[in-house]
């Protein structure tokens, strides 16, 4: 500082104190923002649907206890506790953000033990949709976000701890006033005292314990397989000579059939389909299955149905893929069917095809599609079924075929949606270039009007149902058996909070002897399941199907 400046400040005391006042103002603003940030972190719920004014107008119990602890500690210990507490709170905040994302998509919180393998497929998805540069950018931004949240939370807690140490009396009064407010303040429908942070930590601690034991629990479940050693001559005897197609309709959940906003469109398609099939000489039966997942994770549902094991996390899925579990596909192949996987969503190497027991696997590149994408779907459902028909069922005198076919047209973002065309016009798919198309990402639904998203979802399910019915009517015969089902419910932007995991399932056949075999299931007539129709865990289907169409096992086989 120059001599002239010093003399001017002595001559003008107001000018000398102005920088100090500004610094103090900045200090209090920064401190206030730190306090507000910590408050929001503590009271914010881990479910985005609970983000209401009432939830944030609460007194965090953890904050009150934290201030009391800081008040009684000496300076050095206070800073150490604040540092550790800030880091832990920052990590908990990151977990809360993960919970919010998982709840919005999968109806459940993030699992600290079992969900890390899902990050790999997520990164692969980004790479496929936006390229390697986008993949790298997403990884870097995610890492910066995680580090930034932890650092910001820690620095905020340290700053507040310093204020508490320097203003002990004011901090004591503030805690007392907050405690009084917690006892007297009333906000309609919302408890005034919040313990969200503690509840989140406790819930995840319990979840970690369950996750750590899940591998052993799954090993015990998978060790028992009633059909492990059943010879092919005793398997699926009631379907000899039939072509069997198991079609998974993406995001086709119970809400599509029963939600007042969705059902008028979907139920009309189901009722129309039932009439069309009946007029063509087909019968159908429908019921409900409970999927292990919701909002996403189609591969978990497909593995559950085909393996007869409950696959609700990636660890179980990977363990299953490394096992010798008998799948429905394996059972058909053991009984001399040609087992086929038609998987239009697979765009890179897929070693899982060998586990499921497919003879050939028709991935996206193998199906010869020359048209545009429709949202997430690499090709329309009608093209997928047409390509399967040409490759497998159109050959005169072909061997009986069993096919698993995940259909994608009803996958988020549910727009744009192709329209049905004459099967003779499908060709190589170039005809779809005349339709509105696009490559919108599934997560684009979260930036749109929910009412419009729900309308698009209903129309996409309508398209998939109409396509399946049309396929049976066009290419079906006495030897075609179609099983179609939903893999999981759609995202909560469609269903709302609290939706279950039930999905419809239907069996369609021209030969009445086929449906006679499932008469004991209690399913209702038609392709629309009744509200009171039986509900099974999806993992029960394999054994019920093999029992209905083959010889029931006498002893459950146990793996060594």
Automatic annotation (TrEMBL):
Thylakoid recorded as keyword = no
User: Superkingdom of the source?
Assistant: Bacteria
Ordered alphabetically, the record's keywords are: Membrane, Transferase, Transmembrane, Transmembrane helix
Q: Which residues cross the membrane?
A: 25-44, 56-73, 80-98, 136-158, 170-187
Q: Does the keyword Cell cycle apply?
A: no
Quote the protein name from its UniProt record. Answer: Phosphoglycerol transferase MdoB-like AlkP superfamily enzyme
Against SUPFAM superfamilies, the record matches this protein to: Alkaline phosphatase-like (SSF53649)
Give the InterPro entries listed for this entry.
Alkaline_phosphatase_core_sf
